[in-house]
Each structure stands twice: as C-alpha cells, then as structure tokens.
Amino acid sequence: MKINKYVLISAIILILGIGIVILHNQGPVLNNDNNGMTSNSGVVREVIANNSGEPGTVEVIRNIGNPNGKKIAYVVGVHPLEHQTHETLVKLLPTIKNLNYSYDIYIINVTQNVGHYGDGSSDNNLGRQNGQNLAYKYVYPQIVNGNYSLVIDVHSNVGAYPYKTFVFSPVTEGLGEKYASKVASSCANVTYYQPASTTSGPYLTIPLNQHGIPAFYYEEYSFATQNEKNVRMLQIIHAVDALNL
To answer: Which end of the chain is more exposed for a tag (fewer CB within 10 A), N or C?
Structure first.
C-alpha cells in the first residue's frame, strides 16, 4: 500500500512533538560533569568577590545536601598550589546523595603571584598570602554571619610532617578539636596530628574557633595518586556528615 508523503510527514511531526512534551515535563538534569547538580536542586554557584584590585576572586557553591540540615562550610583555595586536593572536594561533594547536613563550598581563586603550578610552596610565597588575605576578607565574615555549625579548611602538604594525611584544629580543647578527632577515628589512614604552627590559621580557622564556630583542617598528601585522594576525601566527607552536631 502506498502511503501519502504528507500523511507520513504529519505523523513524524506528531511523534516528535509528544517526545518534546515528555522531556519538558521531566525537567532538565545535568550529569556529573557539572558537579552532579540538577537544575532544580536548589544548588547555586555565586561569586562573592570579583574586584579588579584584588589578587583573586572568591565564589561559593551553596545548598549541597539536605536543605533542612544544619549548615557546614568547606573552604578550598587558601593556598593555591594545593589545588589538586581542592578540586577533589569540589568534584566529589556535590555528587553524594542522602547527606544529613547542608553544605556550602567556599572557593578562593588566587590569580596573582600563584607561583609554579604544583604543590608545596614555601610559607612566605606571595600566592599563599594572597589566598589567606582573601579568606579573611571575604570568607570569614560570610561564615561568621552564615549560621554555620562547622567549617573544614582543605589543604595538602608535601610530606614534611610525621603524618601525610591528617586533621587538626589549631585551637585546642574546643569543639573544633573534638569534631576533628571523631573524624580521624572514622577514617582509615587519616590521623589527628597537631603541627606546631600553621600559617593560615590566623586568617580563618583560629578566628572562627574563637568566635564560637568549630573549625578544623584536613591535610592531604600532595603527591598521592588521584585515586588515593578520592578515596580519602570520600571518607572525610562521610565522617563529617556522620557527626552529631
């Protein structure tokens, strides 16, 4: 039987139209290449500092996890050459489902005097100081005024400490130390270790603890494989989410 070409074209248009309506009703979904966020999930990325006179920018990814849970902040980028560990957190955290708490990730992007890409710059590197200044000027006040229950500042090191992967609070005998110790006890190959000093402490974690907001560091080993970084970061994320805040 010969089919009229106009009838055939009309049928194809009708089928395509039904398909478009179905896709529209389902809503757009972004894949994991976009941090696992869906367009209607409530997760937003916001620039909070982008001034020409500053040595970098600051942005925040808000509302990851349980929108009704207590708020926890992660901070990355204070020391720019430790970027691989920072990128690991930003990639993994938004992909995890059924989190107990609501998470914001503060991202410091140092653009001036970063140094050579790679990890382990000296403590007096200008890029490190630029990141610390941006943290104190922009991230610290946002957290102080943001009703957060906990803050984790993510760093990495070149292995000069007795332990390569560890957590600690620069302020002892407080909730920051208590939460960090609990996290360490829940993670394989992550210990609680207290260095003698920290260059970035006065710019974020120390004033936060003094202000009554528990804060601690997570230190990854700079030269661990990416798979090792992924495994430990997932352990840290789940251990933090299991805390009783």
So the answer is: N
- Residue 44 vs residues 51, 65, 144: alpha-carbon distances, Å: 21, 12, 20
Closest listed residue to residue 30, CA positions, set 17, 47, 43: 43
**Residue 205 included in any domain:** yes
Q: Could you tell me the CATH number of the domain that includes residue 116?
A: 3.40.630.10
Tell me: the pLDDT tens digits for 83-118? 999 999 999 999 999 999 999 999 999 999 887 544
Does residue 30 sit within a domain?
Answer: no
What local confidence, expressed as pLDDT, does residue 39 receive? 39
Cα–Cα distance for residue pair 116/94, rounded to 1 Å: 29
d(CA 89, CA 84): 9
Prediction pTM value? 0.82
Question: How far from 24 is each of 17, 18, 27, 31, 44, CA to CA, in Å?
Answer: 11, 10, 5, 17, 21
Q: Flag whether 124 is in a domain.
A: yes
CB 72 within 8 A of CB 120: no
* CA–CA separation, 47 and 131 (whole Å): 16
Give the total number of structural domains in the chain. Answer: 1
